[in-house]
Write a structure and sequence with these properties.
By secondary structure, this protein is mainly beta. It has one helix at residues 8-11; strands spanning 15-18, 26-30, 33-40, 46-54, 60-69, 88-93, 97-101, 106-112, 128-131, 139-141, 175-180, 185-199, 202-215, 223-234, 237-249, 253-264, 267-279. A hairpin with a 2-residue loop joins strand 14 and strand 15.
Length: 283
């Protein structure tokens, strides 16, 4: 499991709005909703919003976030391109959350046009503008939990009927972000492996590696590659499936390549390759 890191690196590339220091705790429960009045010089652009908890030491913890492709502002089934320079209203539903902002902390909202690799990059570089106040009241609505009339009773936990065994501490999975300052390309690589034994003598093993890359000067030319091996071993036989996949993009299309190979006791059993291309369609 990977928890979000300090968000200040992301906030350096965002429009950031930070509230005053809280004098008392504030608990939220539900889905925050952000209304933005925006304009952009691109026909296709996304807006990513992050709600964060800023600690007294300045560190910024991600509470929840939401992403909207602005071409879906009126309909997900019938998106429409933006008109460069035209001001439009967006409603971004952030993910459901439960969080307690403690006294001494601050509430922070940051808005950007990218959230790679969670959302695919827009096809062109763009400059966007947020409008505040007056007839264009951009605003964030937070579902604050009211103070209970009486304190909630402490929970009473029953003992577990299952045996609790000490499990070995797993090494954290590699999660590497590299940035080529000369080429202007950023890459994220994640790796992982797991092994289990559902029954004596039966072993399931799996290993995964995936890399996502984006060109900061040409965001349309992003790509993602994955490689996974699943191995099933039991007395007298081993079956292995190796899968490779790649998604690349241009200004107008997504190109997908998949390759699957299955061996039984190291002998070829099945192999197939798929290649397809799909229009971007305002993505």
């Amino acid at each position: 499991h990977v928890l979000p890191a300090d968000q200040r690196t992301e906030e350096a590339y965002s429009a950031v709005y930070t509230g005053p220091v809280l004098t008392e705790s504030s608990e939220i429960l539900g889905r925050p909703r952000l209304t933005l009045w925006v304009d952009s010089d691109a026909e296709v652009i996304s807006f990513a919003a992050r709600l964060c908890d800023v600690a007294p030491d300045g560190s910024s913890a991600l509470v929840t976030k939401g992403v909207l492709n602005a071409t879906h502002r009126d309909s997900h089934s019938s998106p429409s391109a933006l008109v460069p320079g035209e001001v439009v209203e967006l409603t971004i539903e952030l993910d459901a959350t439960s969080w307690l902002f403690e006294p001494g902390h601050r509430v922070r909202l940051s808005v950007s046009n990218a959230d790679f690799p969670n959302a695919w990059p827009s096809p062109t570089l763009a400059a966007s503008r947020l409008h505040l106040g007056g007839e264009r009241p951009s605003r964030l609505i937070i579902p604050v939990v009211p103070e209970p009339a009486e304190p909630w009773p402490a929970p009473d936990f029953s003992p577990s009927p299952f045996r609790i065994e000490d499990e070995p501490v797993e090494e954290p999975r590699p999660w590497r972000v590299t940035r080529d300052l000369t080429r202007g390309r950023t890459e994220l690589t994640i790796e992982g492996s797991v092994s289990s034994q559902p029954d004596p003598g039966y072993v399931l093993e799996s290993s995964t590696k995936a890399t996502a890359s984006v060109d900061e000067r040409r965001p349309a030319h992003a790509w993602m590659r994955g490689h996974q091996i699943d191995r099933y071993r039991w007395p007298g036989q081993t079956i292995e499936m190796e899968s490779r996949g790649q998604i690349t993009s241009t200004e107008s299309a997504f190109n997908v390549t998949l390759h699957v190979q299955i061996t039984v006791d190291d002998l070829p059993h099945f192999e197939r390759r798929w290649v397809a291309s799909f229009p971007r369609r305002l993505v």
